[in-house]
Amino acid sequence: MKVLNRRESKLFSIAIIAFLIIIHIFVAYILNTYYSDSICSGSSSIIHFHPEINEAGSFLNLKFDINYNRFVFVFMAVLGLFASILFLLYVLFAREVYSAAIYVILSPVFFISGCMGRILERLIWGYTFDFIAVRNTGILDLCDLYLIIGCIALVMTAVYFQVCENKQTRGMNREERKRFLKEINKNFWRSLLKH
To answer: Is the model's pTM score more than 0.85?
Structure first.
């Protein structure tokens, strides 16, 4: 797996985030322009493409009967975006243990892209244009796919971080390990504030 230096990591992250958001908004624009609001029905396949303007959050509505609330949505999206950015910065700056292998960067990159794409979708059109219908589950769009990919990458990242930490802390007792990890986090904030 290719390991990127810090400058390459930043450029790669920004380029992929911009690309994914452009794809997300372009697809939403095409769907909004060329498809009318319709209900996902009439297909016998497990997964089918059938656009639906979704004001309320289809998966939450179908599975948990949760009504859409604009403030809650904005709060969750902004919180998710903030957490994703912080995660990406952690990967980029805490390099004493975590070298920035490409797949380590993918998780926060997809989370950021999904959150920003969804926020822009709501700001531009006022609704989400879902178009991928999964039988007995709900309907989703590119944002949801980004978040699913991000979750898969997050599992890979967690395994990678654990392996890196185990290599660095092999032979340390519990107290030494705690001090070591505390020092990593302290160095991260120090390095972040310098930039």
So the answer is: no
Residues 132, 139 contacting (CB under 8 angstroms): yes
What SS3 state is found at 36? coil
Say yes or no to pLDDT of 56 above 50.
no
Quote the CA–CA distance of 105 and 89 in Å, as a whole number: 10
Percent of the chain with pLDDT over 90: 17
Amino acid at 52: E
Contact 143, 128 (CB under 8 A): yes
Residue 40 has pLDDT above 60, yes or no: no
Which conformational region is residue 27 in: left (phi greater than 0), alpha (psi within -120 to 50 degrees), or beta?
Answer: alpha
Token pair, residue 65, equals 């009967």
Strand pairing category for 128-134 and 47-54: antiparallel
Residue indicated by tokens 């609704």: 127
Q: Are the beta carbons of 89 and 109 closer than 8 angstroms?
A: no
103-135 pLDDT, tens digit per residue, is 788 899 999 999 999 889 888 887 777 777 777
